[in-house]
Amino acid sequence: xxxxxxxxxxxxxxxxxxxxxxxxxxxxxxxxxxxxxxxxxxxxxxxxxxxxxxxxxxxxxxxxxxxxxxxxxxxxxxxxxxxxxxxxxxxxxxxxxxxxxxxxxxxxxxxxxxx
Length: 115
Description:
This protein is α+β, with helices and mostly antiparallel strands and 115 residues long. The chain has helices at residues 3-16, 20-32, 37-41, 48-60, 82-114, and strands at residues 35-36, 64-69, 72-77. The mean pLDDT is 85.
């Protein structure tokens, strides 16, 4: 996967979980397992259509999958895309760790000169 497409995927995932309702839907699915769309909608003070739109955003980001059994649509969490977010945060931590390490070296050099 190219760098641009990885960045786009990361943006889609972060955008999807930027909304409190979508985070709540995802949390519910992780805790309880696959649920019907109507079951999910019944837990929120919003229309079935509104909940369906949130689910579609989560689907586009790859955070949930939909299984259709006749007229029943089961929604299931898929946390594989979260690895992209973990990797990005890991890169940020590495950058800061390198900066802090270099700062420590500079401070140590300054202390050595002062002695």
